[in-house]
Write a structure and sequence with these properties.
disordered N terminus; 4 strands; mainly alpha; two-stranded antiparallel sheet
C-alpha cells in the first residue's frame, strides 16, 4: 500500500494547537477535497491508503529507536561530535532539547487525523453491491486510529484522544485521563477484531500483506490490555475488555490464525542469515510496516526504512554490515543475558570482536562503543562491500527496505502465556515452551512458566524490536530503575532512571507552547 493522495492542503501535517482559522481559507492543493471526493469505494480505498502511509514515517526517529535507547538494552551511541540532542535518550536528561519527541507526536496525530477523515465520510460512499467493504474499511481505519493513539499514550501517558474531526474551537483541547484514551483504543480494536474476516496475508506474494487482519487486531488488543492493566494496576482494559476476553482473543490468534514460528530464528533477519532469509512475507509476521527502496534518493517520499541507517555501524561498512550512524549501541548486559546455546543472541547482536571484525571506535568517532551493535535490521553489503541499497540505485540513508515487524507470532505466544497464567497454566507453559524450543533448537531448556520468566523471555526474544522499555515501565518504575540504572568506570555509560518521570518521556516543548497552557509538561521534566 504505497500510494496515497493528498486529500487536503493541510492533511500532510496536523499538530494540536498549531493551527489557526487561517487554514480554513487555504486553497486545496488538488481538486480532491472532502466535500467532493468521497463518492466511490475506490475513493474510500485511497483514503485508507493515506492512513497506512503514515506508518512508514514512524521508522524515522520513531518509537522503536527511542524506546530502545531509553531501555537497559542500549545506550545512546552515535558520534562523538554529534549534537547533544542526538545522544540524550539513554540519560533521561533531555535538558538541551525537549522537542526531541516531536516526530512521534506529529505522526501519531497525523495518523489519527487521517483515520477520522475517512471514518467521517464512509456513509457518503455508494457501496453498491458490496456493503461488507464498508465494514472492512471501517475496521482497518479504526485499528490504525487505535495504533496511533497507543503509540503516543505509551510514550507520553495522558494524551488528547480524538474520535472525530476536530473543529476550529477544539484546537487546544486538554489531555484526558488514561482510561478515556484506552477506552477509545479498546473499542476500536474490539470492532476490528470482531468485524474483520479470517484472512491471513502472510503467505508469500500475497498482495494484501501488510494490511490489517483480524489476527493483528486481536493480538494488538492483548498488547494494549497488558500494558494498561499492568501500568495502571487495573483489572480490565478501561472497562471495555475483561481479562477473560483478552485471553480469548489472544488464544484465538494462537490456535486459529494460521500463523506460526519460522523454524530457525536467525532466518527472520536479513543480516543474520542472508542465504537462508525467509523473506518478510513469512508465517511469523502477524503485522509489519512495509518498506521498499523505490524512492531512489527522493527525500520527499517515505517509501524506505529510514530507521535502519541509525543503528548500522558508524564510519563505513565492515564485513557484511553496511554503514550508518552508530546509534543505540548495544549494552553488553543484553549480550550476556543469553544462555549458552541460545541461537537468538548471534542473530540479534553483532559482536565485532567475536566475528573477527576490527572496529576502531576512535577512528570511526563512535560514541559509547561497547563492542556490540544491532544485527536485527542492520543493512548489508554486496560482495564488493557496497551497501545493497546503493547497488540498487538508492540512497543508504533513506532507501533501506526491510519491513518493521510490529507483531510477530512469537510475541503472540508470549502474550498468550502471560494472559493464561493463573487460569490455564498448562496452556501458558505450552506457549512458552514453543518459543524456547525454537531458540535452543531442542526441548532441553524448558523452564517453569511464571510472570518473571515470561518477562525475561520477552527481553531475549523481542530484543531490539521496540518492546523492552514499555515492558519495563508497565512492571513499575522501581523495576525499570533497577534494570536501567548503570554505573561504570567510564562515565559516559552512567545512566540514572529518574522515577519522578513515572516512566513517561517529555512532551515536545513546541506543543506545550502552542497549547497556550492547556497542556502541561510531564512530571520530572
Amino acid at each position: 500500500m504505497k500510494t496515497y493522495i493528498k486529500l487536503f492542503a493541510v492533511s500532510s501535517l496536523f499538530v494540536l494547537g498549531a493551527c489557526s482559522t487561517d487554514f480554513l481559507d487555504t486553497e486545496p492543493s488538488t481538486i480532491k477535497v472532502e466535500e467532493n471526493f468521497y463518492k466511490t469505494p475506490n475513493d474510500a480505498y485511497q483514503g485508507l491508503v493515506a492512513i497506512y502511509d503514515v506508518l512508514q514515517r514512524e521508522a524515522y526517529g520513531g518509537p522503536l529507536l527511542i524506546s530502545e535507547q531509553a531501555s537497559d538494552d542500549c545506550f545512546g551511541g552515535y558520534g562523538v561530535a554529534d549534537a547533544q540532542a542526538d545522544v540524550e535518550w539513554d540519560r533521561f536528561l533531555f535538558v538541551t532539547n525537549k522537542d526531541m519527541n516531536t516526530d512521534v507526536w506529529k505522526n501519531s496525530y497525523l495518523g489519527i487525523y487521517r483515520a477520522n477523515i475517512l471514518l467521517a465520510n464512509l456513509d457518503k460512499i455508494n457501496w453498491g453491491a458490496d456493503p461488507a467493504l464498508k465494514t472492512r474499511y471501517e475496521a482497518e481505519a479504526r485499528f490504525l486510529r487505535a495504533h496511533f493513539h497507543f503509540q503516543a499514550a505509551k510514550m507520553f501517558g495522558d494524551i488528547v484522544p480524538l474520535d472525530h474531526i476536530i473543529t476550529s474551537g477544539e484546537f487546544q483541547l486538554p489531555r484526558q485521563a488514561a482510561e478515556v484514551t484506552y477506552a477509545l483504543i479498546a473499542n476500536d480494536l474490539k470492532f476490528a477484531s470482531d468485524n474483520l474476516n479470517n484472512d491471513n496475508y502472510s503467505q508469500k506474494g500475497n498482495a494484501n500483506y501488510g494490511r490489517i487482519t483480524k489476527w493483528a487486531a486481536e493480538a494488538y488488543l492483548a498488547r494494549t490490555f497488558l500494558f494498561y492493566t499492568d501500568y495502571y494496576k487495573k483489572a480490565d482494559l478501561a472497562g471495555v475488555v475483561t481479562k477473560a476476553q483478552a485471553t480469548a482473543y489472544i488464544n484465538d490468534v494462537v490456535s486459529n490464525s494460521g500463523h506460526g514460528l519460522v523454524a530457525d530464528f536467525a532466518n527472520l533477519w536479513l543480516a543474520a542469515s542472508f542465504e537462508n532469509f525467509v523473506g518478510e512475507d513469512n508465517t511469523e509476521m502477524v503485522w509489519a510496516v512495509r518498506f521498499n527502496g523505490s524512492g531512489k534518493g527522493n527525500w520527499a517520499l517515505n517509501e524506505g526504512n529510514r530507521f535502519q541507517v541509525n543503528i548500522a555501524p558508524r564510519g563505513g561498512s565492515i564485513g557484511k554490515y553496511a554503514t550508518g550512524w552508530g546509534g543505540a549501541t548495544v549494552n553488553p548486559k543484553l549480550y550476556n543475558a543469553y544462555e549458552t546455546g541460545d541461537t537468538r543472541r548471534d542473530a540479534t547482536i553483532i559482536d565485532f570482536a567475536g566475528e573477527g571484525l576490527n572496529f576502531n571506535a576512535e577512528a570511526r568517532e563512535q560514541r559509547q562503543y561497547t563492542g556490540y551493535s544491532w544485527k536485527k535490521y542492520c543493512p548489508i553489503t554486496d560482495a564488493a562491500g557496497t551497501a545493497i541499497v546503493e547497488t540498487n540505485g538508492g540512497n543508504f540513508q533513506i532507501d533501506n527496505y526491510q519491513d518493521y515487524a510490529i507483531i510477530r507470532y512469537a510475541d503472540v505466544l508470549l502474550m498468550a502465556a502471560e494472559l493464561n497464567l493463573g487460569t490455564n497454566n498448562a496452556l501458558a507453559q505450552a506457549d512458552l515452551d514453543k518459543v524456547r524450543d525454537r531458540a535452543f533448537k531442542n526441548t532441553a531448556h524448558r523452564v517453569t512458566v511464571s510472570k518473571t520468566v515470561i518477562m525475561n523471555e520477552r527481553r531475549l526474544e523481542l530484543a531490539l524490536e521496540g518492546q523492552r522499555y514499555f515492558d519495563l515501565i508497565r512492571q513499575g518504575v522501581d523495576v525499570a530503575k533497577a534494570a536501567i540504572d548503570n554505573s561504570a568506570a567510564d562515565a559516559q555509560f552512567n545512566v540514572t532512571f529518574r522515577t519522578e518521570t513515572l516512566g513517561w518521556l517529555p512532551l515536545p516543548q513546541s506543543q506545550i507552547v502552542l497549547s497556550n497552557g492547556t497542556i502541561q509538561q510531564n512530571p520530572g521534566w
